[in-house]
Amino acid sequence: MSLFRVKYLSFFFILISLFSFLNIIYSYYFDLYLNLDTYYFSLVVSALIGLFFYRIRPNKKKPTIFEKILTVLLGYVLMPLVLSLPFYLSIYNLSFLSAFFEAVSGFTSTGFTNFKNIKHIDQGIILWRSSTQWIGGLYFLYSIIFLIDIYDESLKKSLTNFLSFNSSEVIKQSIKILLLYSGLTLSIFIILNILGIRSFNSLNLAMMIISSGGFLPVNELSSILINDFQVIIFSFLMLISFFSIFFIYNLIFLRNKNLNFFYEDIHLFLYFIVVVSIFFIFFSYDTNFTSSFLSLVSSISNIGISLEIDQVNLDFIYILLVIIGGSFFSTSSGLRFLKIYSLTKYSFNQILSFSRPKNVFMNKLVFSKINFDSKDINKYFLTILIFVISLFSLTVLLSLSNFKFEYSFKLAVLTLMNTVNSSAYGLSDIDFQNLHFLTKYSLIFFMIIGRIELISVLLIAKKFLFKN
Q: pLDDT tier at 162 (50, 70, 90 boundaries)?
C-alpha cells in the first residue's frame, strides 16, 4: 500500500455505506423488497473496506503526484466494484461484467446503461443508479483538489489566494465542496418539485444534474418535461454542472470580488452566450428551439440527455460542444474551454510575433491579471494530444466490434468525455447489454481514462517508461 494513500478513499467507502443504508430505509418504507438484501451486502462490504483503509497508518512522507494519481485510479476501480454489488445480486440477471460496467458508467458520470426498459426495474435500483452518479461526481471534485499539483498556477489562483495547498487548505476546500455539492443538489430538487415534477423523479434528476451524469429515472425525458417552461428551467439547471461549483458561492459570499476567482466563469458565460446566439440565428429555423436549447446545454455540460426529437443535422455540432466541455472545477468533462482558448491565443501570438517581431504580444487571459506561460501551454497541448491518441485507439477498437465508423467515432468521443449516448448524437439505440466482453472492457477502461485529468496518463507513462 506504499504507493497508495488509501486513507483518502476511506471517506468515500463510508459514504457508499451511508447510501446503502438510505436505500434500505427507502425500500422498507415503500415496501420494495425485491432487491433489499443486495443493499445489505454493499453496506457491510463498503463499511469494512472504509474502516480498514482508515485504520492503515499513512506514510509520513509527503505523497508524490505519481502516488496521488495511482490512488485516484485505485478509487475508480475499487469503488465501482462495491457499487456493482446491488446490480449483480439483483433479480435482473446481470453478469458481473455488466454490473461492473453499469457501476463504472454511473461512477464516472457517463450514463451508458445495460437496462433497455427502466419501467421494468424497481425504484430501489433506479435510486441506486443515481446514487452512483452522485458519489462519483463528488469523488471527481475531491480528486481535482487531491491532484491540484498537476494543474497550472493560474488555475490554483482561481480557487485560493494561497500559493500552495497545505493540509488545512485542502480540508477547508473539501468541506466547502461537500456543502456546496449537497446544497446545490437540494436546491435543484426543490426547484424541480416546484415545477410540478414528481418527487422521486426530482431526486434522481437532481443527483444526475449535479454530477453531470446520464442515468434517467425513466425511458424518455419527455415523459417528465411536458411543457416548454419545464424544458427551459431544466436546461438552465443543467448549467450548474457547466460553471464552477464555486461560482455561486463566490458571487454571494466572497467579500473581496477578486476577478481571479471569476475569470474562468466569465469566459464560459461569454462562450455560452455566443453559442446560444449562433444556434438561435442559424439552427432553429426548422426545429423546436427549446429542444435544441436543452440538447445544447446538455452537451456543453457533458450530461448528454435530450428530448426524443430527430436532430440529425446537428449531431456533430453537439459532439464538438461535448469535446470542449465546461469549467475545471465542475463535474463536467471535456478538454475545457479555457485550455482551448489559451492554446489558440498563444498560437496566434506566436505567429504574429514572427510577422511583427518589434511588437510585444502578452499571453494574458481577458478579465484577469493572470498570464499563462509556456509550461501551461505544454500541458494543454499534451492533454489534447493524449485525447486524440485515445480517440483514435477507441474508434479503431469499436470499428473492429462491427460498429459503423461514424458510430464508432461518436461513441468514442462520448466515452472519453463521459457523456451519455442519446438521440442528440444519433446513438440512442445502442444495446450495451449485448456488447462483446472485450468491447465492454474497452469502454470501461476509457470511461475511467476520460474521467481523470488526461495529463495524468502521461505522468503515469513517464513514471514507468522513463525511470530515473
A: very low
Question: Is residue 132 assigned to a domain?
Answer: no
Q: What is the mean pLDDT of the chain?
A: 85
Cβ–Cβ < 8 Å for 259, 368 = yes
pLDDT tens by residue, 376-430: 777 778 888 888 989 999 999 999 988 899 999 999 999 999 999 998 898 888 9
User: 354-363: long-range contacts at Cβ-Cβ below 8 A with a sequence spacing of 24 or more?
Assistant: none
**Mean per-residue pLDDT, 241-260:** 74
Distance, in Å, from the CA atom of 265 to the CA atom of 327, rounded to the nearest integer, reads 7
Question: Can you read off the three cell numbers belonging to residue 220?
Answer: 424518455
Task: Measure the CA–CA gap between 376 and 187, rounded to whole angstroms.
Answer: 36
Q: Does residue 39 lie within any of the structural domains?
A: no
CB contact set of 10 (below 8 Å; sequence gap of 6+) = 49, 50, 51, 52, 53, 54
pLDDT digits (tens, 9 = 90+) for 205-230: 999 999 999 999 999 999 999 999 99
Chain centroid to Cα 132, Å, comes to: 12
Separation CA 120–CA 114 (nearest Å):
12
Task: Count up the domains in the chain and report the number.
Answer: 1
Could you list the residue range(s) of the whole structural domain that residue 190 is in?
161-358
Helix axes 405-416, 374-399, angle to 10 degrees: 140
In the prediction, which pLDDT does 249 show? 77
Is 456 inside a domain boundary?
A: no
Residue 10 covered by a domain:
no
* pLDDT, tens digit, 9 for 90 and up, residues 298-308: 999 999 999 87
